[in-house]
Amino acid sequence: MIRTIRWQLAVASVVVAIAAAIAAQTAVNLRARGIASGFDFLSRPAGFEIARGLLSFSSRDTYTRALLVGLVNTVRVSLLGIVIATSLGLLVGIARLSEIWIVSTVARTYVEVTRNTPLLLQLLFWYTLTQGLPAAPEALNPLPGVYLCFRGLFLPAPIWRHGFPWIGLERPALVGFGFQGGTSVSPEFAALVIGLSIYTAAFIGETVRGGIMAVGRGQAEAAVAVGLSRLHALRFVVLPQALRVVIPPATNQFLNLFKNSSLAVAIGYPDLMSITNTTLNQTGQAIEAIALAMVVYLAVSLSLAAGMSLYNGSVLRRGGGA
User: Fold this and answer.
1) What is the edge-to-edge ordering of all strands in the sheet holding 183-185?
2) The pTM is what?
């Protein structure tokens, strides 16, 4: 035991010494090139604009708020993508096991095409499709007050005033070459959510298929024998048992979706990575900006993994899932 502890201390000391040497040499190189170090830049005005989102932002706000806006945008895309990818992946996984040939073939084709195509290419494909929509004056109007053009999807929004929960709807109106009023979904946001969801759903679908196949065939047959329909047998007997197999690999896919959201920089969506790039280009604080982004990504990923681990533990304690 003592010998093991000594080896662990020795390895830890070597790692700390190497990290300290790298940090010291980096500081020397920065001073030699006249590059300032530290996080003081976070309190300075950013000097750039960010498209409207959940948090308001102007060029007078600090870099700290800019990075916070990017984090909120990243988390919003990731959570919505996880919900859509999980729902679609569940349907795809079940469809892959369908006894109807056309259903299983379509599901298998979707999985093979999506998994074997680069995600970046898929994001560019969806974004290009949005740019093929008509201009604002010729926008599509599928429903009253709903407009779709290459600038995005514009929808009516509830009006909140003087403490009343809802006093009416504000409809978007064409003003010049764009729409004002209501709420909108930008083409960058839509392309990113669609691309991430469809890509991740293919992997989750295979995970769901594997989980269902891991449940003994006799379970479904016994459920049908006692009078349950095939749908009810799948819902109440097979899927709860499959959860124990599905959750761990599905967690990996959720983490991949969150990290893959950094590809938003390719289509101009202001996520955390995109704003980090703008920040380091303007301030020259490349090491600090990248290190800060890495810490934030790591913290969110570990939090998501911990939450899924707790849920998986509760499923195992119940002997299945609901």
Assistant:
1) 140-143, 146-149, 152-155, 183-185
2) 0.86
Count the Cβ atoms, other than its own, within 10 Å of residue 283. Answer: 18
In a domain, 135, yes or no: no
Which residue type does 312 have? N
Q: How many domains does the chain have?
A: 1
SS3 at position 302 = helix
Range of 235's domain?
A: 63-121+197-318
Query: pLDDT tens digits for 234-289?
Result: 777 788 888 888 999 999 999 999 999 999 999 999 999 999 999 988 888 888 88
List % helix, strand, coil for the chain (3-state, nearest 5): 70, 10, 25
Q: What is the CATH number of the domain that holds 108?
A: 1.10.3720.10
Residue 36 lies in a domain: no
As given in the structure block, the two tokens for residue 301 are 């990923």
Burial 252-269 (b: 16+ CB within 10 A, else e): ebbbbbbebbbbbbbbeb
